[in-house]
Amino acid sequence: xxxxxxxxxxxxxxxxxxxxxxxxxxxxxxxxxxxxxxxxxxxxxxxxxxxxxxxxxxxxxxxxxxxxxxxxxxxxxxxxxxxxxxxxxxxxxxxxxxxxxxxxxxxxxxxxxxxxxxxxxxxxxxxxxxxxxxxxxxxxxxxxxxxxxxxxxxxxxxxxxxxxxxxxxxxxxxxxxxxxxxxxxxxxxxxxxxxxxxxxxxxxxxxxxxxxxxxxxxxxxxxxxxxxxxxxxxxxxxxxxxxxxxxxxxxxxxxxxxxxxxxxxxxxxxxxxxxxxxxxxxxxxxxxxxxxxxxxxxxxxxxxxxxxxxxxxxxxxx
Length: 318
What we know:
The protein is mainly α. It has helices spanning about 20-50, 60-85, 95-125, 130-135, 140-165, 180-185, 195-230, 235-260, 265-285, 290-315; strands spanning about 10-15, 90-95, 175. The longest helix has about 35 residues, at about 195-230. It is globular and about 60 Å long. The model is unreliable at about 1-5 (pLDDT under 50).
């Protein structure tokens, strides 16, 4: 580690996703559309929950925070990826790379904890409906949110404490479109076997553990709903299966990247694109757009925004 201050690498070069013009064009259209939809959809959810007093409940509080995090998920890697698609020299500074790694891990960890908190919220609502508001009080909601951010910061800092001191003396080429921590570590000028194992233990096992907790929670909720009301079992199965699918789609790429012993470069890239671009769009549609109260509140907000835009020209003319 003594060579950390003598690192000769000041920037890293991305190889990108593909050299094919057709694939690049397809990815540009796909990523741009989904990025805009994600930003608009998640922003609308946050605005709706914040302004509509009927949605000031634990479930919607957690949903709004999930959408806020999804804004970060969309923005950490997607804008630069889209910008770099048709650039010959895809470069990022050393500091920019470290910053990207930091936010990728903090945002990913916060989202994992929030998904568990949302499953806990639904578990209490189904198993103990009479005590729901007592257990899921305002203090509990704030505690869960603060805990999510503390865990996220600790996880990300633990990763960077060791990584930021690594000496880099070349090569500086990353076969990716963003600063992928496992590949970033391999470029160091020292033996990083133990550090790579630490990254797997810290990220891979956390992802597996969180996924296991979520699946068990949703199965428990489904069993409880079926026992109490056989008529609601089909609806419950439909809702929970879509939730579990989104959870698997979010955790799948993380688990593959950090635990798969023989990673494939191209598969890693497309899984990362899927996780960064598509998952933030799936969350709003799955958790909120299928909710009647949320859809009514969104229509109200949209109509108010449209009315406000119509009033502005008249104010300027006066």
